[in-house]
Design brief:
Layout lengths: L20 H7 L2 H6 L11 H11 L6 E6 L5 E5 H17 L7 E5 L4 H12 L3 E5 L5 H11 L3 E4 L1 H8 L11 E4 L8 E2 H7 L14 E6 L9 E5 L3 H10 L8 E4 L6 H14 L2 E5 L5 H10 L4 E4 L1 H10 L14 E4 L6 H11 L3 E5 L9 E2 L13 E2 L5 E6 L4 E3 L7 E5 L9 E2 L3 H5 L2 E2 L2 E10 L5 E6 L4 E3 L2 E3 L1 H9 L4 E11 L3 E10 L7 H15 L7 E4 L13 H9 L15
Parallel strand pairs: 1-11, 3-4, 3-5, 5-6, 6-7, 10-11, 10-12, 12-13, 13-14, 27-28
Antiparallel strand pairs: 1-2, 8-9, 9-20, 14-15, 15-16, 17-18, 17-19, 19-22, 21-22, 22-23, 24-25, 26-27
Helix pairs in contact: 3-4, 3-5, 3-10, 4-5, 9-10
This protein binds adenosine-5'-triphosphate (ATP) and magnesium ion.
Length: about 575
């Protein structure tokens, strides 16, 4: 990876909206960021007040908050005022059904307007919102509802019948199930209740430290954790939406994250609405032609997506975007996995600007390290810590932590706790939570390095890093080199035990259409990797697969590939999605 390659900020299509990075660092404080919120009478805080009610007070109720595109292509628009009334109705429904402040309200829905109404209505009522992936099977749903003590669930009739009905008897805390369509015994039809509910509701004033959200981690490395976030987190959502996504009130914004994942809440609901943008929500699954058309016809200004989707667009080929124009598109960002330099450069060619990678976790609640909106982009780097965030690269031993300051030293990526959206707990797992902190740092579990310009480079999750013949090999570097080859659509590498080298690198490759999994191609790829990486780091073995095992949030599950190679148990695979040999 060429750490000196730079896409200069003046070549990025953007007008000055933010202070430059250095000025922002020098002037930022969390207390000032806290004070710019609207607040409720008496200084109380509620995320939903900042996201919805505030805009009515400011006289902006007429503005479109949400433009929903159904699978059929039909569009429905909701103004801030309409969302205010609908979320008021939902909060009234919860209260009328005996659901109280602090109760846990879950959603199991695809990208439906009801999801947004439920999330914000739940917060208005002072309840805790917990989204689940609609693709989950009954067991992962049950496990997550048990951990969080779910009191209410909002879902569709078909999801209920297929996934919840059979486990309902084992969930004694689950008192209410609201269906957005259809009927089933022991449930209520939401529209019936909403129709008769008042559209006036006084949002419940909350203390900043009151619990607002429960998010489960992706389960990439093992059993998912139930992460607790509080209302104060909205301070960070607001600020990072501006710094890392360049969001402005005049923007049309499209976040493609699944609503069952933290990105779907922090940046798919809260940050954009607090800033006051118009959000695009597409109900349909990923489809390259549809995506290009949405970017163009909806006039998307800011687009937040993920490496897996970008790689799929690349796989669909350069002809696909031809004929489309994206004059409105000002800022593109990516999260969830390392973004290969190849993808950043490709974005620059197709859209006239690079994707801005940013790094964070369910635990951090918001973006921590980012290619700040007015900064030069180094393809392959996650960027720099946002204002208000202190990051470090640590050498962690069983007894000690030590900060590594020399450039390009590899160590654990750590953060100094204290930003508002930081998790407050792993629900019911105090020991697991406490293990994340050492010597005044929060340990992320990821390995990274920092270059002499202060840019951070992702190396791999600490569990995925490979030690071979005295080299520490980050899977990301090897995968990025293989991805440069025109035949490669996706790739994952793992380390396998080897008597002489300690570990050797094995790569799993999914090919682009038109390429055949033949020995000649395998040799070509091995040769390419050796040339790019040197023989010590290049894979010793390459196997072809249809696709790679991924979590529902689009993260490659390297641990699963490794466990299978070693004949070990597969562990928790509740979030496993694509996985074809
Ligand atoms: P689990 O903690 O259950 O194993 P997970 O870590 O995948 O799952 P998330 O909180 O959804 O759950 O994902 C956060 C992780 O995703 C980060 O720790 C990092 O490994 C990876 N990640 C996110 N963004 C980036 C990025 N821009 N570059 C590299 N890795 C990233
Ligand atoms: Mg994690």
């Amino acid at each position: 990876m060429d750490k000196n390659k730079i896409i200069k900020s003046e070549n990025i299509r953007r007008s000055a909206n933010l202070p430059d990075y250095e000025t922002a660092l020098a002037t930022f404080s969390w207390s000032a960021a806290h004070d710019v919120l609207d607040f409720m009478p008496g200084g109380a805080l509620n995320i939903a007040h900042e996201a919805i009610d505030k805009h009515l007070i400011l006289g902006q109720g007429e503005k479109i908050a949400l433009r929903w595109i159904a699978k059929t292509g039909e569009r429905t628009e909701f103004t801030y005022e309409e969302l205010a009334h609908l979320t008021n109705k939902f909060a009234n429904v919860l209260q009328a059904q005996g659901i109280k402040k602090g109760d846990r309200v879950y959603s199991l829905l695809g990208r439906k307007p009801e999801l947004f109404i439920a999330a914000l209505g739940t917060l208005k009522a002072g309840c805790v919102f917990c989204p689940l992936f609609s693709a989950f099977g009954p067991e992962p749903i049950k496990a997550r509802m048990e951990i969080g003590g779910a009191n209410a669930l909002i879902t569709s009739a078909s999801l209920y019948r297929r996934k919840v009905k059979g486990i309902r008897a084992e969930l004694p805390s689950l008192r209410n199930v609201f269906l957005i369509d259809g009927e089933a015994e022991g449930t209520n039809l939401l529209t019936d209740l909403m129709d008769t509910a008042s559209d006036e509701f006084s949002t419940v004033p909350m203390k900043p430290e009151d619990m607002a959200l429960l998010h489960f981690t992706s389960g990439t490395t093992g059993r998912p954790k139930g992460v607790v976030h509080v209302h104060e987190a909205v301070v960070a959502h607001h600020v990072t939406g501006r710094f890392a996504l360049d969001l402005r009130p005049t923007d049309t914004y499209w976040c493609t994250a699944d609503p069952g994942w933290v990105t779907g809440t922090s940046y798919g609901i809260i940050a954009p609405l607090v800033i006051g943008v118009t959000m695009i929500v597409d109900e349909a699954d990923f489809d390259p032609a549809r995506w290009y058309s949405i970017l163009e016809t909806e006039g998307v200004n800011v687009w937040y997506t993920a490496p897996t989707a970008i790689r799929m667009l690349m796989k669909a080929g350069r002809d696909m975007p031809t004929g489309h124009e994206f004059p409105h598109l000002r800022f593109m960002a990516s999260v969830g996995e390392p973004l290969n330099p190849e993808a950043v450069v490709w974005g620059n060619e197709v859209f006239g600007q690079p994707f801005h990678d940013n790094w964070w976790q369910t635990e951090t609640g918001g973006i921590m390290i980012a290619n700040y909106a007015s900064m030069d982009v180094k393809p392959g780097s996650m960027g720099k810590p946002l204002p208000g965030i202190t990051a470090g690269i640590l050498n962690v031993t069983p007894t000690d932590v030590q900060e590594l300051t020399e450039p390009l030293a590899i160590g654990e990526l750590a953060l100094r706790p204290g930003w508002p959206s930081m998790m407050r707990a792993y629900l019911h797992e105090e020991a697991r939570y406490n293990k994340c902190f050492r010597g005044g740092w929060y340990l992320s579990g990821d390995l990274a390095m920092r270059d002499s310009d202060g840019y951070y480079w992702f190396v791999g999750r600490s569990d995925d890093v490979i030690k071979s013949a005295g080299h520490l090999i980050g899977p990301f570097e090897v995968e990025s080199a293989l991805l440069e080859h025109p035949a490669v659509a996706e790739v994952a590498v793992v380390g396998l035990p080897d008597e002489t080298a300690g570990e050797i690198v094995k790569a799993y490759v999914a090919l682009k259409p038109g390429y055949q999994a033949k020995d000649g191609l395998r040799l070509d790829l091995l040769g390419h990797a050796r040339k790019r990486l040197g023989p010590a780091v290049a894979p010793k073995e390459i196997v072809f697969r249809k696709n790679l095992p991924k979590t529902r949030s689009g993260k490659i599950m390297r641990r699963l590939l490794k466990a299978r190679e070693l004949g070990l148990p597969e562990g928790d695979i509740s979030t496993l999605e694509s996985d074809e040999q």
